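USER:
Before I trust my own judgement here, I would like a peer's view. Write it directly below this note and I will take it from there.

ASSISTANT:
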Amino acid sequence: MNDEREFLNLYHHGLIRVAVGVPEVRVADPAFNVARTLELMEKAEAEKAILALFPELGLSAYSCDDLFQQQALLDGSLEALSSLLKASKSSNLISVVGMPLRVDHLLFNCAVVFCHGRF
């Protein structure tokens, strides 16, 4: 029986369980968006996923247009990422979230990969 259980474990065959989450989002509301993302991360981990993928610009929402140039939205997105990093410290889940990031005065549409509180 133990051999059968090991055979049925997909991780013994070089495979992983990947979760794809599409949270409810509000445009330019990173606090709301991160809460919905955290809910889905918890669900993915409970279902034994190793990797969770979330939408492009999921922390800010996609149709912000000119709001992407607003420091308040960029700061809110960074605070949302900080919340995700804190929540992931005790988790084995690798997560990928989308957000706008300003680097050297240039604005980028980025995918941030993180696990165990680090990206």
